Sequence to fold (85 residues):
Amino acid sequence: MLVGNKTDLSEEREVTFEEGQEFAESKRLLFMETSAKLNHQVSEVFSAVARELLRKHNREGQAQGRDAAVALNMGPMRQVRCCTH
Fold:
């Protein structure tokens, strides 16, 4: 993901939206512009990254013939023994 920040400072812009978009496309990246100061599209960037990661995970799982569900809390299995006999 390529993120152009500080869109609130448009008068100081050095890279146009089109230039950023073209560069991102040439590198096969997602592209968005944000302003952290104005809270413009900040959470949308993280959501876009999460959606893309999930999409790629699902696609890779299907290509390998596996269930594409995301497994959470994948820690080692432990047997729990009761303290009373």
